[in-house]
Amino acid sequence: MKGLSQLYYLHGIGYDYTKYTGEHVVFEEKVRTEALRCCGIETADSALIEQLNFELDIAPWQRVVDDVCLIEQHDSLLKFKLPDHQLDGLASLKIQKLDYAHEFELTSGVVVGEYQHLGVRYVEVAFQVAPISTGYYSAILSLPCGQYETQVWSVPTQCYNPLQSKVVGLSIQLYTLRSDRNLGIGDFGDLQDLISHSAQSQCDYILLNPLHLLFFDQQHRVSPYSPNHRSLLNPLYIAVELCDGFADSQALTELYQQTLSQLQDQKSQTYIDYAQVSEHKYGLLSALYVHFKTHRSTQEVSQFIAFQEDFSTALEALDGDEQAIYWQWLAWQQLESCQQLALKMGMCIGLINDLAVGCADDSLEYQANRTLYAQNAHVGAPPDPWAESGQNWGLPALNPLKIKRRRYEFFKQLLRNNMRAVGGLRIDHVMAIRRLWWCFEVEEKRQGCYVYYPFEHLMALIKIESQLQQTLVIGEDLGVVPPEIKAVMQEANMLGNVLFYFEKNYNGEFVPQTELRHQALLMVANHDVPPFVAWWQGDDLLLRVEYQLLEENELESERLKRENEKHKLLSWLADAGVSHLDINSRAFDVYERLMLALSHCPTQMLCMQLDDLDEQTLPVNIPGTYLEYPNWRRRLSRSTGEIFEHKGDFIATLTQSRKGI
């Protein structure tokens, strides 16, 4: 393998893939070439190509040890490279932080790889060393030929997983919560209320939408999956009246009551008017900051400074804006309080955060890390039945080689910040740690291909951070999943994500409950598919016609398909022992029986969507729309208290059935 073909491989540019139709597709040369150009490589420069191939293929064998050295705890093998004539003498690995020193003979290793260059045989050799506790450590490798600095990562075998039995929980979009006290958008005060109700019904977790920072001055951009910064929180989730110092200020109390009154009409609407809500709420948050500046105590100042030191990397994106930093401090305090409340009330996991797969291409996160990204490439999905030209999610693509810079610090911080103050982390589109579909223009036409990422190191980071922070990890693995991802997730005790809607066999029948995956989070529906009541009643089909995603003359055909799906579900329920339902049964009655049947399945985590308990007929998001449908704005119809008043008995019955009570 030489020239461009070699560079494609070394740079992670995919060669082929299997399309949803089963067709084997080989990427065109011009497509792969454009992917390299997006990485800043001039593909017509043969000297550059030769130089890059040397740096990526030969030079690593001449470096002895990489910047990062992985030591898997299941075998404690230290690996490094040497010319074979230097495999003699005494070596040592020292980690000053741990007072760790391990000596070994270079003749005691096992050769696990080799490379020939200019008559020299380089070998990669593995040596068993004394165990090292989980974490990242600056280390010195001493050899007869010299001393080499590296960072040793001691990688646990598995992610943290506290589950001893099957559990039940809720999934919510936090902003959708209604209450008398919030300012037009669900907030951390509403989350506390939901935690109390959920814990009393013996739920063990609440799965949240991504809480990432959105765009302060662009209120039409409200998708939590296309955020401004993934390591910062959305200040609109702050419950203002629960902040320290609020109750002591008559002026703040009066302003809060005035704001609440001004938003009453908006709060009664189906959809959040982000422009109106943001104007009023940021006004109140600004007043809260002024109060803090005027009345802050010595203790508060110390705590604020400590927060800034702890979050220094992420906060750099705010460019010293103390007011914005103050809001981050409040938001993280309240999220932490919510998690502590959940644990205090007996939830075994508590809150589960959601990490979006990327950030917007004009975001603070992108600006702060621009050098890590490819040029003119976005991530998306390959062609599928709903998008024959593929999907472009509009999120900039990270350059797989550049994220190695600073020892993968970018991804480490991203994980660490999103695991803070929660008991679990759901990683959206977890396949991204292995490969991502890049979209770009080739000859004025959208093209794309898979680009592969440093899977071993990114997976190591997930396992290390999960154990260090005692955080359960769920990888959203819906769609086409490379087999190596499934295998590694299973070995690492990382849970997958199952949508019942999609769990069908080769005949198109719903799979029996006994065959549903054990190591997973099971949901009937999520934010990208219709709520159950809408699905059963066919409301989503009418909505697709309304927004021109479905032609009027196709509606009847789609209704017949849906009727067929409903009969398949009734057949599945009959096999599960539920025989009293029919095609005309009330939607929520079917949902109740479905969830109760699923409570007996082997899957570790069963999830109720609060939208379904609210009997919602409107989705929070319609894929394929942007501003046509008010995505990510729809509120719930009832408050948390009202939902639990109407559905509390069912929730309690479900949790008791699940736990065998």
UniProtKB/TrEMBL annotation:
Q: What sort of enzyme, by top EC class, is this?
A: transferase
Task: Indicate yes or no for the key word Hydrolase.
Answer: no
List the catalytic activities from the record.
Answer: Transfers a segment of a (1->4)-alpha-D-glucan to a new position in an acceptor, which may be glucose or a (1->4)-alpha-D-glucan
Supply the alphabetized keyword list: Carbohydrate metabolism, Glycosyltransferase, Transferase
What EC number(s) has UniProt assigned to this enzyme? 2.4.1.25
List the GO molecular function terms: 4-alpha-glucanotransferase activity
Q: Which domain of life is it from?
A: Bacteria
User: Alphabetically, which GO biological process terms does the record hold?
Assistant: carbohydrate metabolic process
PANTHER family per UniProt: 4-ALPHA-GLUCANOTRANSFERASE DPE1, CHLOROPLASTIC/AMYLOPLASTIC, 4-ALPHA-GLUCANOTRANSFERASE DPE1, CHLOROPLASTIC_AMYLOPLASTIC
Q: Kindly give the NCBIfam families that the UniProt entry links to this protein.
A: malQ
The entry sums up its family as follows: Belongs to the disproportionating enzyme family.
Protein name as it appears in the record: 4-alpha-glucanotransferase
Say which species the protein is native to.
Pseudoalteromonas amylolytica
